[in-house]
Design brief:
By secondary structure, this protein is an all-alpha fold. Helices cover about 80% and strands about 0% of the residues.
């Protein structure tokens, strides 16, 4: 049973004004607290599929007979599979509703988790990881589409920040869970965790989540309508600009994920404590998202995210200079790096909400475009930076600085040179 506050919030969001092409949000299907945790769980399946196996990459590489940098393909195969199918999931969920598409994606995620654990060669493992990414992408697209169905603007930014606050528990705990599994079992068992998580989330959403895309709001599904909807995404300057800026800045996140194990264990010799230092960065990211949820309705998405993006650029360049002058010392690297990720936490949810705000009518399609940019495009950027790793963290951090500047340039163009608007 929802509290009076939750019911009032649902009623308020259901009556927000909107233009003819941007229908008002629908009523929240469950209590706000459960809704936030459920959306976080759906999105966290993606993070779990990446982070739980980071401690196992060396074991996988050793058993499969692949090189250190090639072990990153276990991550990037999944991310590449995750990216492109989002472009299909968006229109499908706009046409047939959120629930059918979500349940198909969750079932596929669970099954491919089991198949990954049975892989007998590196090629088969990469193929199953790619397939798992394909299904996981549906979970992400539908989850963000559901949020846009029931919230918009600063309200959506606040909810997404709360979602990300809970979501970040997974990157904090997943590497430690993976390390614990390796103490008692082979690396294949890490994929069993993915199958178990997928099955549990399937049961939860099936029994508790109502449809948020009623038949009256569903859009046609044909080649013309799909092209028209994606054309609308491209023609909407705010949406396209923030989708592009997100795609660039998220490249830094994927560069970090792909090289984290090598950087921490090879450059800074953290050994098995790597998972704790990794968790510290994730904790800072979670704290930043929670802070954003408290501030965004007062200060606005643009003021917070623009300031954070400038901070991201400045701190990245500062870290490159410090490491170049004083050497690659962990006591220099880690404090500045965690501050960089604090800035990242103030960017992601706000950019997402800014991109989604004008296109509530085709929220699934807009979510798919955003997801494609922040996975496929970002993972390719991250992979390009990751391959520059040569035993030094400086090339990776230089990549961070450059990506920050490119993202800032895109935002400046999108906002016509005016940052920090109160809109």
């Amino acid at each position: 049973m929802r509290t009076r506050k939750e019911a009032g919030l649902a009623e308020a969001t259901a009556t927000l004004p909107a233009g003819a092409s941007d229908p008002p949000p629908v009523r929240l299907p469950i209590g706000t607290g459960e809704f936030v945790v459920m959306i976080a769980a759906l999105m966290a399946l993606n993070a779990l599929a990446i982070d739980v196996m980071l401690p196992a990459l060396d074991d996988i590489a050793g058993e499969m007979g692949v090189s250190g940098n090639d072990q990153q393909l276990v991550i990037y195969a999944y991310i590449l599979g995750f990216g492109v199918p989002q472009l299909a999931y968006g229109p499908l969920s706009d046409r047939y509703g959120r629930r059918p598409v979500l349940f198909a994606a969750l079932a596929g995620y669970t099954i491919t988790g089991l198949l990954c654990s049975l892989a007998t060669g590196f090629g088969m493992l990469l193929a199953m990881r790619f397939a798992q990414g394909v299904f996981a992408s549906g979970c992400r697209v539908v989850a963000v589409g559901i949020v846009r169905d029931v919230f918009m603007g600063r309200g959506m930014a606040r909810i997404m920040s709360l979602v990300m606050t809970i979501f970040m528990v997974v990157p904090i705990l997943a590497p430690s869970i993976g390390q614990l599994i390796l103490f008692v079992a082979p690396w294949e068992w890490t994929f069993g965790i993915l199958a178990l998580a997928g099955g549990l989330v399937f049961l939860w959403t099936y029994t508790r989540l109502a449809e948020t895309r009623p038949p009256a709001r569903r859009t046609p599904l044909n080649l013309y309508s799909i092209i028209a909807d994606y054309s609308e995404v491209v023609r909407t300057p705010v949406t396209f600009g923030y989708v592009a800026a997100s795609g660039v800045i998220f490249g830094a996140l994927f560069a970090f994920i792909g090289t984290a194990e090598q950087v921490y264990t090879e450059v800074f010799d953290t050994g098995e404590s790597f998972v704790l230092w990794f968790a510290g960065v994730a904790l800072m990211l979670s704290a930043a998202n929670f802070t954003n949820s408290r501030l965004v309705e007062r200060f606005g998405m643009r003021r917070i995210s623009h300031g954070a993006l400038i901070g991201f650029c400045a701190l990245s360049f500062l870290l490159v200079v410090l490491l170049s002058v004083f050497g690659e010392q962990f006591r220099i690297f880690y404090p500045v790096f965690t501050l960089i990720f604090a800035c990242f936490g103030l960017i992601g949810s706000n950019f997402n909400a800014l991109a989604m705000e004008p296109l509530g009518r085709i929220a699934g399609t807009a979510s798919a475009a955003q997801g494609f940019a922040t996975t496929t495009v970002s993972s390719l950027i991250g992979w390009a930076i990751g391959t520059r790793y040569d035993g030094s963290v400086i090339p990776v951090m230089t990549g961070f600085a450059v990506l920050g500047l490119v993202s800032l340039a895109i935002v400046l163009i999108t906002e016509r040179g005016r940052l920090f608007s109160a809109r």
